Amino acid sequence: MTHVTSLAKNRRLVIDHHGRTRAFAALWLRERSPDAETLDPRTGQRLIEAAELPLTLAIESADVRDGELSLRFSDGHCGLFALKALFDDAPSDPPQRLWAAASAPRPEADFAAAVEDDAALLAMLEALHRDGFVLVSGVPTEEHGMQPLIDRIGPLRRTNWGGIADVKSVANAYDLTMTQRGLEPHTDNPYRDPIPGYIWLHCLTNAADGGDSTLADGFMAARLLRERDPAAYDCLTRVTPGFHYQDDTTHLEGEGPLIELDSQGEPVRVRYSNRTERVPALPPEELEAYYAARTAFYRLITGEELTLHLKLDPGQMLIMDNYRLLHGRSAFQLAGGVRHLRQGYVDRDSTASRRRVLRRQATPAPTAGEPA
């Protein structure tokens, strides 16, 4: 059963549909009216100027029949809404699976299959979204071996370092990644706008002593910090440090909290880059609280509770969510052999778009007689 009640001089509509109750503003319904006069049938984009609708717009009549809501608005417009669509507010993406070291998944994909087959590519992208990383095997051990798979998803993100860049020890290194030292868990390039969304790390050779990769789920770290030290969690969502990178030809600056929240108050991005962080000269009491909170977060992302250890073999590639995962490596010695990896970036928008389109194409349309 469905019941409809008008409130606030008919400028709100309360719908009780099969035990679920929601209130809708008349203006919200009017600007989303699913007809060819309001929304372009092909693109779904709005054709009317919503800001020109009268703020006093009201609903003059409402009728429910056969799962559809028929409305007449005070501006004379009539709209027909599917009740299921009004109540279907599920997110377009499935939930992510947070993990600690003991429960860490090992999502894997085959390079050739993902390049050639949409189903395999979708499975890889779904795993990447769900777990924050995926290990791809069978990548050609050539300098641009990852490129065919990148081309299946979206453009390669170019930076001041070029497109696909070397990760190996060099003389006069312009970044600490190009040395033999170990790297603390970090997110890449928080000084860029936008921050690169996904890191692609491709192993050509890895015979050096050491140089193992580490991963930690930053969203799990944020969850644990919120449970164990709410004050520290709150501090890291509010204080906004800066991040800085500079060389002979580049000067980049950015800012943002170590734990960034979405509109629902849930972590949507973590930043951690000890090498490039520049905290402003806040009042001493604020800095004391921030430093204590940062230390608590650091202990989580470096502790064995959350740290997953991996060593890439030649022909393997690690794709990582740079908004969620923190990655690092142990120090290595070249006396034991050569360590040569290649790294590229692909942005989040093209990756998410490809995943959603493939999922939509893989979902069969409802047949006659089935609910839409």
In short:
The protein is of the alpha+beta class. It has helices at 26-31, 83-87, 111-116, 118-131, 147-151, 218-228, 230-238, 284-302, 348-362, and strands at 2-7, 12-17, 20-25, 59-65, 68-73, 78-82, 108-110, 133-137, 156-157, 165-167, 183-186, 198-206, 209-210, 213-217, 242-246, 251-255, 259-261, 267-270, 277-278, 308-310, 317-321, 325-329, 332-333, 339-346.
Overall outline: globular
Query: What is the straight-line distance between the termini?
Result: 18 Å
Oligomer: single chain
Q: Briefly, what CATH class of the largest domain?
A: Alpha Beta
Can you summarize the main beta sheet? Answer: 7 strands, mixed
Number of domains: 2
Just name the CATH architecture of the largest domain: 4-Layer Sandwich
Q: Helical percent range?
A: 10-25%
Number of helices: 9
Beta-strand percentage range: 25-35%
How does the helix and strand content classify structurally? Answer: alpha+beta
Cα-atom radius of gyration: 25 Å
- Uncertain residue ranges: 170-174, 367-372
Overall pLDDT score: 91
CATH superfamily of the largest domain, by name, is Clavaminate synthase-like
Number of strands: 24
CATH third-level topology of the largest domain: Double-stranded beta-helix
Please provide a written account of the structure.
GO terms for molecular function: metal ion binding; trimethyllysine dioxygenase activity. With 372 residues, the chain is of the alpha+beta class. It has two domains: 2-87, NE0471 N-terminal domain-like, CATH 3.30.2020; 101-357, 4-Layer Sandwich (Double-stranded beta-helix), CATH 3.60.130. It has helices at residues 26-31, 83-87, 111-116, 118-131, 147-151, 218-228, 230-238, 284-302, 348-362, and strands at residues 2-7, 12-17, 20-25, 59-65, 68-73, 78-82, 108-110, 133-137, 156-157, 165-167, 183-186, 198-206, 209-210, 213-217, 242-246, 251-255, 259-261, 267-270, 277-278, 308-310, 317-321, 325-329, 332-333, 339-346. The strands form seven sheets. Strands 7, 8, 9, 10, 12, 21 and 24 form a seven-stranded mixed sheet that branches. A four-stranded antiparallel sheet has the order 11-22-14-20. β1 (2-7) and β2 form a beta hairpin. α6 packs across α7 (230-238), α6 packs across α8 (284-302) and α7 (230-238) packs across α8 (284-302). The relative contact order is 0.16.
